[in-house]
Amino acid sequence: MRLEHKVDAILAGLNLVFKQEMKDMATLADIQAQADATLTAVTANTNALSAIKTLLDAQNAQIATLTAELNTAIANGADPAVLQAISDKLTAVTQATDTQAAAEAALANTPTA
């Protein structure tokens, strides 16, 4: 193989790595934006019950997003048995969480200042 071909192959490999890094950075930026939005929503609430419920709702939304991403990974050929078990657990957590009841319980156990 000629040197030019080797360099081209290396550059193509680096380009693939760069594209994956950019994709990962976009995903991290999305997660950071979601976290910032959740923090803004929670701190905007002066009512403790509403703030707790907002936080729990955001948690459930994030779990739903992760479940969807897992389902996409399964559809794209990842190990279905392992990923499906994780997806099922995330779905069960989301469905089992009554955010209103959890917020009320947290508020009941929170001393006032």
If you had to describe this structure to a student in words, what would you say it looks like?
The protein has helices spanning about 5-45, 50-75, 80-95, 100-110. It is elongated and about 75 Å long. The termini are far apart. The protein has about 110 residues and is mostly helical. The model has no long low-confidence stretch (mean pLDDT about 75). The chain is built from four helices and no strands. Helix 1 runs antiparallel to helix 2 (about 50-75), helix 2 (about 50-75) packs antiparallel against helix 3 and helix 2 (about 50-75) crosses helix 4 (about 100-110). It folds into two domains: about 1-45; about 45-113.
Which percent band covers the strand fraction?
Answer: under 5%
Helical stretch count? 4
* Contiguous uncertain segments of 5+ residues: none
N-to-C terminal Cα separation, in Å? Answer: 74 Å
Overall body shape? elongated
The portion of residues assigned to helices is: over 70%
